[in-house]
Design a protein that fits this description.
CATH superfamily: Ribonucleoside hydrolase-like
Number of helices: 10
Number of domains: 1
CATH class: Alpha Beta
Radius of gyration: 18 Å
Distance between the termini: 47 Å
CATH architecture: Alpha-Beta Complex
Shape: globular
Strand order of the largest sheet: 3-2-1-4-5-6-10-9
Number of strands: 10
Length: 306
Amino acid sequence: MSNPILPPRGKADVVLDTDTYNEIDDQFALSLLLLNGDKLRTAAVYAAPFHNEKSSGPEDGMEKSYDEILKVLALCGKSELASRVFKGSRSYLSDEKTPVLSPAAEDLARRAMEYTAENPLYVVAIGAITNIASAILLHSEITDRMIVVWLGGNSYDLPGTKEFNMMQDIAAARVVIEKARLVLLPCLGVVSEFRVSKPELERWLVGKNPLADYLARNTIEEAERQSSLTCWSRVIWDVTAVAWLLNEDGRYMRSVRRRAKLPGCDRAYSDETIDRELTYVSYINRDRLLTDLTAILTKEDPSKLD
C-alpha cells in the first residue's frame, strides 16, 4: 500500500462542510479553523443537511446550521466571512448518480477547479457528505484537485456503520469513498477517544471570553439535558477533522493507509471489493489536542480583534 496522505505544509486553503446546529462539536471545529488563520485560510463554509430531534427534516437542519455558522463567525470576530457561507443540500442523494443542486455544491464544483493535485483544496466535512458528493457528481474532475477529510462511519474493527454522518446519506458516502482522495476519521473506536468533561469545561473555558463561554455552556447544557442523572463526558468529534490539518509531525493523531470499505444500506460495511485506498486515522492524542484547543479558544477575545 502507498503512504498515508500527509497534512499540508505551509498555509492551506480550506472549505468546511458542517451541520453546525446538529450538536455542540461543530461549533468547536469551526472556531478552531477560524482562529488558525496563520495556517489555514477559510475559503468557504457550507451548511450541511441533517435530520434528528433538532430539525424537522434535512432542509430545516441545513437552514438552522446556516444560521449557527453566522453566529459562530460573529463570536470569532469573523463576520466579514459571511459572504463565503453557502447553503447546502435540502435533501439527501436519491441515488449514486444524481447530484442535489445547492449553492454549496455548485460553489465547490467551481472552486476546486482552481486547484491542482500538487496544490489541492482541503475539504473538511463533519456532517452528512451530501454537498461534497453532489459537487463530485456535478464535475468529476475536481476529485484530483482536492483532499476530502471526513469524519464519518465507525472503526473498521466494529461490525456496523450506524454512525450519524454516514447513515444519513449512504449514497453520498459511497460516491465520496469511491471517487475522492480521502482522509477518514472513524467515529466509534477512534475519534470517540476525544472527550471533555464538565469540570474541564468549567476550568478551562467558562468565563474566559464570549466564544469560549458559549462553547462550554452549550456543551454542558446539552450533555446535562441528555445525562442529567449520570456522570458524563462528551465527545467533541468534529474538532479532530480540522485538527488533522494541523497535525504536523503527528502531533495530534496517527494515520495509516487502508483498503477502502463501502457502506451498505444494511448499516454494515459491504463485502464488495473496491480497488481504492484511503488514509485512515487510527489514534487520537486526546490530552495534547484538548490542551491546544483550549489555549487557542481562550488566548484572547476574538470578537474584539480587528
